Amino acid sequence: MGTGGSSVVREGTHKESGQKVAIKILENYDNVEDASDEEEAFWAEIEIIKQLDHPCVLNVYDFYEDSEHYYVVLELLAGNELFDQIIEKGCYEEPEAVSIVYQVLLALEHLASKSICHLDLKPENILFTDDSHTRIKLIDFGEASSCKDHKLTGWVGTNNYMAPEMIKHLEYDCKVDMWSLGVVTYIMLCGSFAFDAEDEIELYQDIMEMRYEFRSPEWDDVSDDAKSFVKSLLTGPIERLSASEALRHRWIVQNLPSCHSSVRALGEL
Length: 269
Prior knowledge:
single chain, 269 residues, Phosphorylase Kinase, domain 1, Transferase(Phosphotransferase), domain 1
């Protein structure tokens, strides 16, 4: 199905149920020289994934190992990335954007309840379950970390989506994921980055100063409620909405009734 770094992903079938799954196969770190950091990161990811159980988060069914490989049995998703859909569409109409943002918020609310930060939220890590492009799953917890016992420090993730407190080398928590969702929402609504300076230093400066704008003509027909939602996330960590608070924002609440019934039902689980 695909390869990435030191792993390969293959499709498998559960012998008893016939259920199709994805199997991520990695070389056993006992056979790899100087792999202590990679091994530590791998086991940390496994421990984080084991804590998660939510319909908007990729399911991990099982884990096996032998003398040569590790095998992680995952939910098989037939859809493509949100990134691909943004490229194809250019931008999203607001009700459709809300349907996706709502599901990401539910996933982030679940993570926050476990004091887990995803730390690499971006369109490439939001995957559709099938070609109807209705339901999504949050994937890739390779950068995720717990902030249960203490706040986090250090640069993690993809620079265009990094929160200002991270770039400033300050302590941070799950609200960095909410900043990233603000950037994702901005992209979905207009088709371009909120922060996209060609020079990396200028990019970081723009993020730290929270310097962005709703440019014309891309934002001319976008509602004030949508802009208010983006503003409520692309702000300082104290003022920034949590996932639970963002789920009650007017833009989400007003557009949710127009979402597919399977999406609305997720909030009742």
